[in-house]
Amino acid sequence: MTRDDKLNLRILICIGGGPEAYASLRYAVRLSQTTCADISLLYVRPQDSGLNSGGMEVRVARENVLDWGLELPGLRQLKAARDILVELGEIEPGASREWKHRELKGDPAGEYVREYENPCGGIVSLRLRTASDVTAAVSDEAKRFKADVVIVGASPEPMSGLKKLFSRKPLALKIAAHAHCSVIVARHLEHGRNHLVCVQDTDQSRAMLPVVSRYFQSCQYPLSILSVAPTEADLASAQKAAQEAAEILAELGTTPAEILVEVGDPVETIITIGYDFSLILASESLKPWFAKGFSVSHEVAEKARNSVMIVK
Amino acid sequence: MLLLPAPEGVTQEGWRVMVMTVGATILFITEPIPLPAVALLIILGQVFLLGLDSSLVAKSLMKDSVLFIMGSLMLAVALVKQKLDKRLALLIIKVTGSGTYAIAFGISVFSGLLASFIGEHTVAAMMLPVALSLIQLSTDDPKQQRALAVLFLFSISYACAMAGIGTPSGGARNAIMIDYLRDFFYASDDPATYGYSVSYLHWMIYAYPIFLIQLPLMHVILRYTFKTDLHDLGPAVAKLKEQVGQEGALTGRHYVAILLFLLTLAGWVGFSSRFGMGTIAILGAVLFLITGLVRWQDLNSGVNWGVVLLYAAAISLGVQMRDTGAAAWVAGMFMDALAPFGLDSGLGLLAAVMLLTTFITNTMSNGAAVAVLGPIVLAIAVGTESNPLAVGMITAISSAFAYFTVIGTPASTIVYASGYLRPSDFMKVGWRIAIMSFIVLLTASKLYWPLIGL
Fold first, then answer.
1. Are residues A206 and A299 located together in one domain of the fold?
2. Which of A125, A151, A186 is the last residue of a domain?
């Protein structure tokens, strides 16, 4: 495999120590093996407030921990991710690199970076950052890394009822609302099964198709198209959207395996049909970030039990 | 709220101070803006909203307790930089042996005894690598590592939190309460008020036994809440001895650092009534600088000066709460609410103050909690004709009961930064330890304090 800059993806994976992020590594490596992707693994540690630590910077304690030769929190999780990449052949066994500290503009803590080259010449980097706002730090890193897609793990059991009412919005959904690029909200993200592209008769939906095509040429997974009409009266519009999407994708070099047109509540229908697919893809909403939770794509990302990619 | 007319019973100035206090408290808890900005807003509010002279406001910011906070933070950084922790680790495992629970108790005892004098953040920063080393050397299994981590790290943080009330130098909250008691009740021409100028030794007599009783009870609770399969850490202890042993014997630099610390401690015990705890703390920090044991750059980067400013502004606002009558007004409402339950006097009042402080201290840092609550609880003491000293001590001591949240105490924040703990761990064990602390404190206030004339 050699690098093809047209298809070469830049994938940012948020490592938080949870199983979903580690599971998504296999998926990312599959993408990398096809297109020689650059992969960045990011762990963002919440910044400590000086008030909470009584006025003594927690950095003093951290420097003391480093002086003992112990690892900073976050490095353990990144190393576990690196071990998985070694196991998958993305990083050569025995490859060893030192952690480098980099200054970041506007970020007093900077970042720790360790970089490896994968067998086809792509770069695999492990990054540890400290930030008071994890969502903002991930969005910032996605811009700096020029990421095509951010992968962030989410609970496979979506919250509901009182728990949802009293809990904070899951980090994955906040990142999906704020990041400039496409975001995969990963739940049991695995390769090998079909992907489902959800379309509708809107400019926003049509605009995502080149991005979708590039993605599928990279991953070479079979794709299905789904268009949902909220009522029978909208059926013709839904059929037109599905047909048009299939034609545009075919022109771009990606032929869909099947076209599905359904009538029903868009969110529920997509979640029900999408359950059998590895990944559901839906276009980003034009709503502002604070109202995105009321859009179809973000509602699907919130309620689905499998992975959802919000295409931007 | 500022535009609303002042409620009955409080002056317009008092109402404005109330609004500023509520606003500052919300900002302390939610942190939508940088905390030093809250301090600056408090200063500006006193000039623009209360019409105070800016020189008077500036003067009200610098008290002995603020000097103490500044000096003790510098001392904390200076002590951590001496790398005495490795020797401390050797001493602990030499005393405790290799039993897991014996080591956990040893960590608690050493952390507690040290934290009662030099501040919990210092000890937590020094003990954190000791515990992490033992955890990482003991096993590679993540589950077993976490089981050990919760036991060892909580042994540090809760011991530090409990010990912080033992002496005035144990934490900023103690210095703040001492300042409030002196400011509000002490008069140099009235011998009857001399008791409100609490000396270092008197504070220790009131509070140290409470810490000593809590310590073993805390260990028992931790032991039964966080059980581990690893009962003997012999191999890890041997590796740690080998690693730390390579450091060699104590050098002259270490001896000088220990001597300076002991001199500072002696200064606090013997001279703080005359010169002020803050002066002694500053003197200690200056001696570390003069002898070259620590660089100014290290102190400058290790101390969060914004927090010092924040404490200064909060104390200044507290004084305004008293001067404008706002504290008495809030205290009156609090007493009205307590009266139907019979909690407006005696042990009931102390219990109510303890619960209120425990609630507030779990939502913000304990120093800020005492700064905010101090004027109110002391006004309650006056209003109910209770002993202000007892009420003040109850407030300062129960501000250490921040067992439920990560942000409650500096030591909890520092051990949480290790990455091994979850916020839910604090809840799991926190309520058990809180009940134990409530019982110990109320029993001490009922049985022990009257014996020593408090």
1. yes
2. A186
Rg value, chain A, Cα = 20
What is the ipTM score, two decimals? 0.77
Under an 8 A CB cutoff, do B86 and A68 touch? yes
Confirm whether A279 is domain-assigned: yes
Whether A120 and A173 share a structural domain: yes
More confident residue, B255 or A215: B255
Mark whether A180 and A296 lie in a shared domain: no
Per the prediction, chain A carries an average pLDDT of 84
Taking only Cα atoms into account, the Rg of chain B, rounded to an integer number of angstroms, comes to: 22
A53 to B413: CB separation less than 8 angstroms, yes or no: yes
Dig out the tokens for B285 from the structure.
């920090």
Q: Give the total number of structural domains in chain A.
A: 2
What is the domain range of residue A213?
Answer: 195-311
Nearest by CB to residue A65, choosing from B132, B310, B410, is: B132
> Which chain B residue shows the shortest CA-CA distance from A47?
B417
Please give, rounded to a whole number of angstroms, the shortest distance from the CA of B417 to a CA of chain A: 7
CB contact under 8 A, B420 and A53: no
Q: Bridge-partner residues for A100, per DSSP?
A: A113
- Of all residues in chain A, the one with the smallest CA distance to B304 is A55
For the cut 60, the answer to whether the pLDDT of residue A3 exceeds it is no
Could you read off the pLDDT of A214-235 as tens digits, one per residue?
888 877 788 899 999 999 999 9
Is A64–B126 a contact, with Cβ atoms under 8 angstroms apart? yes
C-alpha to C-alpha distance for A118 and A124, rounded to whole angstroms = 7
A178 shares its domain with A206? no
State how far the Cα of B431 lies from the Cα of B441, in Å rounded to an integer: 15
Percent of chain A predicted with pLDDT > 70? 89
The model's pTM: 0.78
